[in-house]
Amino acid sequence: MNERGAEKRNRQNLRTGFTTGACSAAAARAAAIGLITGTVPEQIECLLPNGSRVLFTVIDRYCSKTAARAVVVKDGGDDPDCTHGAHMTVDLLVKPDAADQIFFRNGKGVGTITLPGLGLEVGGPAINPVPRKNIEQNLREVAAELLAQAGLEVVISVPEGEAMAKKTLNDRLGILGGISILGTTGIVRPYSTAAFRASVVQGIEVAVAQGQDTVVLTTGGRSEKFVMQELPQLAPACFIQMGDFLSYALDAAQRCKLKTVVIGGMVGKLTKMAQGETITHANRNPVDTELLADIVQSLGVDAAVCADIRNAETARYASERMEALGLSLAFHKALAQRVVQTLAARYPRQFRIRVMVCDFDGNRITEAEGND
């Protein structure tokens, strides 16, 4: 497989790409060959964590007897990742008095771990365990003789990495100064739900590691901004965008024995939660307008309006009809209570549930709580 393999279209007709970890491993392997042969190659075949081998192009090559540098430009495929195009730079330094040892250090643009909960040493570089292992595998494959006599220090840097990190949630996780070196397979799959699910769970684990007993789960940017304004006393690590992955977030909250779970959202996603959907994506099961009609009926609304809502396609329609009738507060309060009831039935007495509701402009409407 070569770089054209990244051009291969997946089922959604989107290109796969490579992780920051895979590109760093390729650069490290190329730099090691430079130390051994005196020339850093223009292309390098790299072993990925998933066992495949991929051919990468190497730029900005340098080497001497004690140091070498190689740069691989990250191709993220069609994944909307802020690190696409990043110049993954590896400097290898020979450590004469440390035979067979490999050390990792972050250069400019790669973050530093400042908080516990990520499985990495506080004060150390934000280079995840799988990429570390993958880099070491590649170095030991090509530089076994060198490592028998000396150690190697791997310094990973990313120009503009600090600016890239501002587009991530790294600061909330206590990763400061740059991006993280990530990747469990080496391959970036466009719009990877697995990666997002993992980040949701990791966010909860980090909050717990910081001693927090509350997390605030939101479905997107507007709802997150709303709850942050409503709950300024909470630490930044408490706020986690769960997207559509409600069940993964709540299962993690249960496993971590959290005291309180706050959910911030708008009518559409909250309706999905009230009807028992564990994944609230719009392309999955449709909104249960029967449930909405039942709520409206419980408020004493005319039967014709209830029928209209029952036959509608969206939850927003019900919200707008109730607003026109002056019943927005009562409607959203009842909906929030339904969410609490549904989740309390699934997680009985596991944690306190608080549901906060905002409108489509991110303004507060109401809230409900329960599950003592």
How far apart, in Å, are the first and last alpha carbons?
56 Å
- Which sheet architecture does the biggest sheet show? 5 strands, mixed
Structural class, by secondary structure, is alpha/beta
CATH H-level homologous superfamily name of the largest domain: CbiD-like
Which features does this protein show?
single chain, 372 residues, alpha/beta, CbiD-like, Beta-carbonic Anhydrase, Chain A, 2 domains, five-stranded mixed beta sheet, 12 helices, disordered N terminus
Written description of the protein model:
There is one protein chain. The protein is an alpha/beta fold. It folds into 2 domains: 3-188, 2-Layer Sandwich (CbiD-like), CATH 3.30.2110.10; 193-370, Beta-carbonic Anhydrase, Chain A (3-Layer(aba) Sandwich), CATH 3.40.1050. Helices cover 36% and strands 22% of the residues. The chain contains 12 helices and 18 strands. It has helices spanning 20-37, 129-142, 144-149, 161-165, 193-209, 221-230, 246-255, 267-274, 289-298, 303-310, 315-324, 328-346, and strands at residues 17-18, 43-47, 53-57, 59-63, 67-73, 87-95, 102-106, 109-110, 112-113, 151-157, 175-176, 178-179, 187-188, 214-218, 239-241, 260-265, 352-358, 364-370. A 5-stranded mixed sheet has the order 4-5-6-10-7. It has a 5-stranded mixed sheet with strand order 15-14-16-17-18, sandwiched between helices. It has a two-stranded antiparallel ribbon with strand order 1-13. Helix 11 packs antiparallel against helix 12. It is elongated and about 85 Å long. Mean pLDDT is 90; it is low at 1-12.
